[in-house]
Amino acid sequence: MNVSHVHPGHAALLAAALLALGGNAALAEKPPGVPQARTTPPPGGNGYFTHAQRRAVVAYYEPRFKTGQCPPGLAHRDNACLPMADSTPWRRGAPLPGDAVTYPVPHDVSLRLGLPPEGHRFVRVGSDILLLAIDGGVVIDAIDDLSRP
Question: Which residue of 1, 84, 87, 100 has the fewest C-beta atoms within 10 A of its own C-beta?
Fold first, then answer.
């Protein structure tokens, strides 16, 4: 619809209808197959990630770890994929240290996790998947030790 040709009386009605629909009609329509972002912790949980998400992510990495197909930053030792060097410690609720080496989460893992909440992103640090706040880099939650089922 070309809004430049909307009668002034109808413009207010159109604006009220858009607000009633949640503010932005374009945001209300998600393409099919795009997962919705969850913005709150799971029911009964203390963090963002659910047990199902952890199982799904471990199911992605486990066969790769067993065959020595370690992702960047991890080396195959003692039948496991372990950080090549001492990994930078991180804490939930604290900013990720500036010297932490982060890796993007593989596309298949992103599909298993769904979309992060607005203003957040998923990264891998060593053998952990972190949910980080983009502004400030605070660690919100983690799936730690991907080699542990």
Answer: 1
